Amino acid sequence: MIKINSLKKQYKEAVVLDVESLDIPATECFGLVGNNGAGKTTLFRMILDLVRPTGGSVSIDGMEVTKGEEWKKITGAYLDEHMLLAYLTPDEYFQTLRKIYGMTEADLEAHLSKFTELFNDEVRGKKKYIRDLSKGNLKKVGIAAALMGKPEVVLLDEPFENLDPSSQIRLKKLILKEKEESRITFLISSHDLNHVTEICDRIVLLEKGKVIRDMHDKAAMMTELEAYFTG
Ligand SMILES: Nc1ncnc2c1ncn2[C@@H]1O[C@H](COP(=O)(O)OP(=O)(O)OP(=O)(O)O)[C@@H](O)[C@H]1O
């Protein structure tokens, strides 16, 4: 589903990302971990054509992301609050996206009903603008928006950050359910090793822009990651 080939990003002399090759098959839940500055967000931004690579390429479903727009129809993402419209309420924002995606009111209700537990009565039906939401509630709006329009690929940058413990558990359940039912290919970056190892089939560890581990064995992931991070 996603193919990365000799992907490199350099700012002046500093090489911040250098990934030889990565192949993420359809329906995989791909976890990305690494210390601050390892290059996780840079990699996600290049996959979404928000940052131009110094070299190499990214393809989604056979489409090179820098060379066309078709991949956008099957891709959803929430990286940070810049992707939201701060002057709208969450309801206004979801309505705007509903029109863009050509969804009916019933489609939107069906979609948002999956988020009832996660929203915890703090997101919908309020007069609060997105700019005034707490960081956790902003994240919930962004994730619900990223999953609109039946995407086949969804990228989430630090989805558990700023969520309270109940919301983290609810989000994990929601991602696992979406993965099962909608067969979405998820790419999830996280500093939370417990959550990411629980939901992902594969974990890639970045260090200074390079892939230093590519783990598929669920039973061994946590031990290996703990050993690395306690180093
Ligand atoms: N526009 C830029 N100009 C110069 N350096 C940049 C720029 N954007 C990112 N970097 C550098 O690229 C490196 C990778 O940053 P990135 O945000 O991708 O890391 P990360 O793994 O997401 O970190 P974190 O866990 O802290 O979110 C960092 O050293 C960062 O300072």
Automatic annotation (TrEMBL):
InterPro entries: AAA+_ATPase (IPR003593), ABC_transporter-like_ATP-bd (IPR003439), ABC_transporter-like_CS (IPR017871), ABC_Transporter_VariousFunc (IPR051782), P-loop_NTPase (IPR027417). Pfam families: ABC_tran. GO terms for molecular function: ATP binding; ATP hydrolysis activity. SUPFAM superfamilies: P-loop containing nucleoside triphosphate hydrolases. Residues 2-230 form the ABC transporter domain. Signal peptide: none annotated. This is ABC-2 type transport system ATP-binding protein. It comes from Algoriphagus zhangzhouensis.
